[in-house]
Amino acid sequence: MTNRQSWACALIALLAATLLGCQEEAIVAMIGAQVRRGPGQQLELSEVALFDWDRVCLFGPYTPAATLVQATGLPDAARTAHSIESNEGIALLLFIEGDRIAAEVTLPRAEGEFAPELLGKCYSRRDAVFAVRVVPQNSSGNIGPPVR
User: Where is 67: in which H helix or E strand?
Assistant: First the structure.
């Protein structure tokens, strides 16, 4: 491989990493914007995550890596923990397509917090619909189950 080809490969890798980072930032921004619109707003993750995915798994702070593997059925899920085991300030959304992780999104709790009853579970693309809510007494999370 020539020096020029090496630089081209490095540039392509850098661009790919940048685009993936932008994708995560865009998802976080769109979730945060929906939450800021206030209670009653619908949050449909298929409208926020515009890439190919079949299901999304939601994990809250202090989730052990073993729980990620168990919930997703993917051994690679443990690599994506993003300090979730010890970081109380984030949630982790794993978007899965087939048997691979299509995207990992760390959602700061300040941008939106999924209700405890939603965490540790996976939702199909069709079922990944939630509602912004007033945080109930004796609970947490301003993103809850959809209002039916």
Answer: helix 65-72
